[in-house]
Design brief:
Number of helices: 21
Helix content: 25-40%
Strand order of the largest sheet: 6-7-8-9-10-11-12-13
Bound molecules: beta-D-glucopyranuronic acid
CATH topology of the largest domain: TIM Barrel
Distance between the termini: 26 Å
CATH class of the largest domain: Alpha Beta
Number of domains: 3
Shape: globular
Radius of gyration: 26 Å
Length: about 700
């Protein structure tokens, strides 16, 4: 149990349950003429033989017993009569149905296209893995979002920017010759969630990734992913026409530049006929872009869109931009630059917007661009990798964070216009690398899992997803699932509490973001410091984003602006995001803000202790023995327990350093019962960490 199998472990079910499933499923009738048909059949065989203890019987022509029938109207005569019904499920959806056909009990996994059948097979396996009943099974599923894409921030030298799970999976040196089987397992894992695209390289892109030899390598990955319904995309460096093409300019209105991108697109599609498209970070954190030539983001995006359109490709243009001069409020920047461009983009441009207006903080309000660009397809970008949430060692389940944003009401078209409803897609910054666990820890796999499931259907509940994941990853035993789900569901709030409670943000140490740095000040840009964001002084703390301050609230619909802009109405978890508040402000608890703040930091530490206590109850009785009822295997139990000890220590460090710093600013006594930090502030400030632990350099 080293974690490699992810949620696709397919261990034997309890004998009685396995016997019941066997009688329901009977023989398997599955086509295997196309690559996707073959992988669907293989996955089914792998799953059933593992879960049920024996490989299912194959096709026996004149059989009469129950059967599991896979296929599309083209590939299966049993499914052909469902053609019309299946049309409404789209190209990727599927139907699972128990019914009678020609006197036989059958369970159908039917879809319009082969890829839908594969998704259906994974769903069926999930039902078995979680012990669900197959009686009266009737499920129709199709993805709510078109684009469900991982973004790998992988550099060509193998280092993963903000990655804490080893090195890049893509071994550029041995590609295209060596087809590492791990690439196939990667595709299986994504297909099991319905993820249908992957951007192979970092948004801080090297032009080199568009050079012919690298395109050959990418084409091999695309070939391996194709049967699983996963398209390959690349991040493009805007100045590639200069760096690769030898042109003098990358000006989007220059005809030679336009020709260069058209030729490049032709060259890509000659190798990868179903290439997904290009992702671009432009005019942000030093990256080149159209503004270098006095052109707009729309000019830049449309340049690439026109080159890709004849081939059916899309542009994913990021809204994460930086002004050259530090703005009064960095959180307002993307909206200021993009809202006015609504309607100016080609139809195959998607604007990729981070979940919040700043930068993947433990908690942010939803990004004001959601709801503000009705004529532009919007994608929401979230981090799966935990750059600002404790890296790989902290157990922080991100399902509740994603869910919170997806369910936020933009009020764009009146009440009930949630973020989920305005999206065309979701992009997740991957937490995947060469680590044996793939994600850097056992529990970080759940974040990849939750991202995929929510991208398929953003209305699902983070709790249900956690329960499925825990059942498949550890054991379907409710005595295992329940405590694990409880830990997961509390974990994000714990991290918010011990890092950035009550709407605080951007308090991590400079650069690598490891550990607390609320004192960070000075340096090249004020908006890369902590003091710019928390604005704490003798009298109070918080960023005034009301009309009296930066007026960032005005970027939201009036109903949202009114609520968030009003100290009496703003939800406490966002208090200090929107308001600068006196230390003696009365909180809902009746405490002063100062007392509450200190209390939250300590509560975060206690919440980690509670996770440790829960995890301890799942310890196997004897080391090395097979897992008992209500217990977790020894190998994974030990690693998670060790990581929780690290998290506990670091949560305490966050609490102590933050309390020491804020007390130095507020000059207030600690509330009764709160322990003084064991070291003076200067001690915490002097700690040196040249790089982020686990970042794979
Ligand atoms: C920031 C990361 C940086 C990324 C940037 C981005 O620290 O490494 O390049 O986001 O999204 O949060 O472009």
């Amino acid at each position: 149990e080293d974690g490699y199998a992810l949620w696709m472990r397919y261990l034997p079910l309890e004998p009685a349950l396995a016997a019941d499933y066997r009688t329901h499923l009977g023989e398997v009738l599955a086509p295997d003429r196309t690559p996707t048909q073959r992988v669907a059949r293989e996955e089914l065989e792998r799953g059933l033989s593992g879960l049920l203890g024996s490989a299912p019987r194959g096709h026996a022509a004149a059989a009469t017993g129950p059967a599991l029938v896979l296929g599309t109207p083209q590939s299966s005569t049993s499914i052909a009569p469902l053609r019309e019904e299946l049309a409404s499920l789209g190209d990727e959806g599927y139907l699972l149905r128990r019914t009678r056909m020609g006197g036989r009990q059958v369970l159908l996994v039917a879809a319009r296209r082969d890829i839908g059948v594969l998704h259906g097979v994974f769903h069926l396996l999930r039902l078995l893995q979680t012990g669900a009943s197959l009686d009266a099974l009737e499920l129709r599923e199709s993805p709510r979002l078109r684009l469900r894409v991982l973004n790998h921030w992988d550099n060509l030298d193998g280092h993963v920017e903000r990655g804490y799970a080893g090195r890049s999976l893509w071994d550029w040196q041995t590609l295209p010759e060596w087809r590492d089987p791990r690439y196939t397992d990667y595709a299986r894992a994504n297909a099991s969630l319905g993820i249908n695209g992957t951007v192979l390289n970092n948004v801080n892109a090297s032009a080199q990734s568009l050079a012919p030899d690298y395109l050959d390598k990418a084409a091999t990955l695309a070939d391996m992913f194709r049967p699983y319904g996963i398209r390959v995309y690349l991040s493009a460096r805007f100045s590639a026409p200069i760096e690769l093409g030898g042109l003098k300019t990358a000006d989007p209105l220059d005809p030679a530049v336009q020709r260069w991108w058209r030729d490049k697109a032709d060259e890509i599609y000659a190798r990868i006929p179903d290439f997904g498209g290009l992702l671009v970070k432009a005019n942000s954190e030093g990256q080149p872009g159209p503004q270098d030539y006095g052109r707009s983001h729309a000019d830049g995006a449309n340049l690439l869109a026109d080159a890709l359109a004849p081939h059916g490709g899309v542009v994913m243009w990021r809204a994460f931009v930086y002004a050259h001069d530090v703005p009064a409020d960095r959180a307002t920047q993307a909206y200021s630059e993009f809202a006015g461009l609504d309607g100016a983009f080609r139809p195959n441009v998607n604007l990729q917007v981070k979940n919040g207006p700043l930068d993947f903080q433990p908690r942010e309000p939803f990004h004001p661009l959601f709801g503000a660009m009705p004529r532009t397809p919007l994608m929401m970008e979230v981090q799966i990798t935990k750059e600002y949430l404790g890296f790989a060692t902290h157990l922080v389940y991100l399902g509740p964070l994603y869910e919170e944003v997806l369910r936020s009401d933009t009020h764009a078209r009146g009440e009930g216009s949630t973020v989920a409803q305005v999206l065309a897609g979701m992009a997740g910054v991957a937490n995947i690398g060469t680590d044996r666990t793939w994600s850097g820890s056992h529990f970080d796999q759940a974040n990849w899992y939750a991202f995929g499931r929510l991208a398929w259907n953003p209305r699902q509940s983070a709790r249900d997803i956690a329960a499925d994941w825990a059942a498949m990853t550890f054991s379907p035993d409710p005595d295992v699932v329940q405590p694990i789900v409880a830990m997961m569901m509390a974990s994000r709030e714990a991290a918010v509490n011990y890092m950035t409670p009550l709407g605080l943000h951007h308090l991590m140490a400079r650069g690598h973001h490891y550990g607390p740095g609320p004192w960070v000040d000075g340096g090249p840009r004020a908006d890369w410091t902590s003091v710019y964001y928390h604005r704490a002084d003798r009298n109070g703390i918080g960023f005034d984003r009301t009309a009296r301050g930066s007026n960032a609230v005005a970027q939201y619909a009036p109903a949202v602006a009114a609520r968030h802009g009003d100290l009496a109405q703003v939800p406490e978890p966002l208090l200090l995001w929107f308001h600068h508040v006196p230390w003696e402000h009365r909180m809902a608890s009746g405490q002063t803000l100062w007392d509450e703040l200190v209390g939250r930091y300590s509560q975060g530490v206690r919440q980690v202790q509670a996770m440790q206590a829960t995890w301890a109850t799942l310890a196997p009785v004897e080391r090395g023995s097979a897992p008992l009822r209500g217990k977790v295997d020894a190998q994974r139990h030990a690693q998670v327990a060790a990581y929780l000890r690290i998290q506990r220590r670091e949560a305490q460090w966050w609490r102590d350093a933050s309390v020491a710093y804020f007390q130095s600013v507020s000059g207030r006594p600690l509330p009764a019962g709160e322990a003084a930090p064991p070291h003076p502030l200067a001690w915490y400030q002097a700690l040196q960490f040249p790089s982020a632990p686990g970042d794979g350099r």
